[in-house]
Amino acid sequence: MHSLPAAAAAVAITAAPAHPVSLRPLTQVSAERVLVADKVAAAKFGTTLPIDDPAREKQLLDTVAAKSAALGIPPRTSVRIFRDQIEANKVVQRGLFARWTAHPDEAPKERPDLQKEVRPILDRITDRLLAQIKATQRTRGQASCGPRLAVAYVKISKRDQLDALHGAALLRGVSSVCGS
Ligand SMILES: O=C(O)C(=O)C[C@]1(C(=O)O)C=C[C@@H](O)C=C1
User: Fold this and answer.
1) Nearest residue CA, atom 7 of ligand 1?
2) Which residues touch 174 (CB under 8 Å, ≥6 apart)?
3) Which of 19, 21, 92, 109 is least crowded, fewest Cβ atoms below 10 Å from its Cβ?
4) For 111-144, how does the pLDDT look when each residue is reduced to its tens digit (9 = 90+)?
């Protein structure tokens, strides 16, 4: 039995996996995020809170950039993906506001607290999404990323039974996952 020289052993341990990593967990977390948009919309509907909150977006993207640097992910990559995630969230919020305005009987009866209840859920999702961005770093740069992402999208949309609004939002949310 020959033992590997230390340097080669280190490479063997730290080298990226040879096979592409599944994009399903990343897509799954993104789907969870567009579903949490229902709670965000419920927290805001019928209040003076606007759908667009640039200060919160800046705070979120600054956090994402700082955490990415610490994780060894290029911050511009994760910031770009999170910008899409935010847009996806707004797609749902706008869609639900329109639906609830047209059909007040469908509006939620309860109003969750945005700060205390809903944003902490989004913050936990941020960490899980960053972990997936990190895990898929190599896969996202491969030519097969697009087709893999498409398959993951179809599977997750079906499994989570996403309606047209959430399906469209999910597509928006993962639109720049590949190629980074
Ligand atoms: O936290 C909010 O107020 C949200 O509406 C969520 C969210 C996001 O996706 O993170 C989306 C839109 C806002 O501009 C800010 C943040």
Assistant:
1) 86
2) 26, 27, 30, 84, 149, 153
3) 109
4) 999 999 999 999 999 999 999 999 999 999 999 9
Distances (CA, A) of 53 to 40, 59, 76, 84, 177: 12, 10, 21, 15, 24
CA distance 117 to 34: 16
Domain boundaries, the chain: 23-173
Q: What is the tens place of the pLDDT at every residue in 12-63?
A: 555 554 588 999 999 999 999 999 999 999 999 999 999 999 999 999 999 9
Q: Is the pTM higher than 0.95?
A: no
Measured from the CA of 52, which atom of ligand 1 is nearest? 14
64, two tokens: 């994402």
Distance from residue 172's CA to the centre of ligand 1 (Å): 15
**Domain 23-173: which CATH number of 1.20.59.10, 1.25.40.20, 3.30.1780.10, 3.30.590.10:** 1.20.59.10
CB-based contacts of 75, cutoff 8 Å, min separation 6:
64, 65, 66, 68, 69
User: Nearest-CA neighbor of 141 among 176, 178, 171, 108?
Assistant: 178
Tell me, what's the ipTM? Answer: 0.99
